[in-house]
Amino acid sequence: MIKSLTPITLAALMALTSPLAAQETATDTADSTTQADTATADQILDLGQPVDDGTPQLGDRYAKETHGDWDLACVKTEAETDPCSLLQILTDPNGNPMAEVSLFRINQAGGQAVAGATIIVPLETLLTAALTISVDGAPGKRYNYSFCNPLGCVAQIGLTQADIDAFKQGSEAVLSLRPAPAPDQLVEMKMSLKGFTAGYNVVDVVTQ
User: Fold this and answer.
1) For 122-139, what is the mean pLDDT?
2) Domain ranges of the chain
3) Mean pLDDT across the stretch 181-192?
4) I need a labelling partner for 168 at 20 to 30 A (CA). Which of 13, 94, 102, 105 fits?
5) Cβ atoms of residues 202 and 151 within 8 Å
6) Residues 6 or more apart whose Cβ sits within 8 Å of residue 174
């Protein structure tokens, strides 16, 4: 499965070993003897759980293919063909997920955008400063944010053929933003372009 921007919380882990949980378990054990006569077999016996064999379930996102540092990420549906996008999770120096770039091609008549991307960056990003993307140190382009949700703040951007050509020819892009609590600071996240061309050639095309 693909890395998630919502890792398991410390509170969830602590709940598994909290004194309250241990106390309830001890109480249940003590009461089991008196309830044994009235409990059904299903309540007493462990019926087991299916073993997770890694097969994507309905609604799961999974990597169908990998091209360099990009995944062809698909969502499991009931249709014969699952929808896929070109995905890269950007991480901090410790490997923790920080941002997500999900890209697809666009087939439209007369428009400038040949591809679109949804970029999710951390909450508390300064929205008025916009998001900047530059390739191999070249002058960047600024994109506005569309909205924020519990996962982060989202920029839905259009990419021209010139933008895609720069990605294909480049080795690394840098996404820059400013945090709202410290607007004088610039946060830069590196996006590898290794394997981009191969992934772009097989990603889904959305018809407009």
Assistant:
1) 95
2) 10-44, 61-207
3) 94
4) 94
5) no
6) 133, 134, 135, 140, 188, 189, 190, 191
90 vs 102: CA distance, rounded Å: 11
For 61-207, which CATH superfamily applies? Invasion associated locus B (IalB) protein (2.60.40.1880)
- Other beta carbons within 10 Å of 117: 19
Interior angle at CA 190, CA 198 and CA 95, nearest 5? 100
Exposed / middle / buried, residue 188 (Cβ in 10 Å: 0-12, 13-18, 19+): exposed
Scored b (16 or more CB within 10 A) or e, 105-116 reads bbeeeeeebbbb
CB 142 within 8 A of CB 119: no
Q: What is the pLDDT of residue 5?
A: 57
Token pair listed for 205: 């095309």
Whole-model pTM: value is 0.72
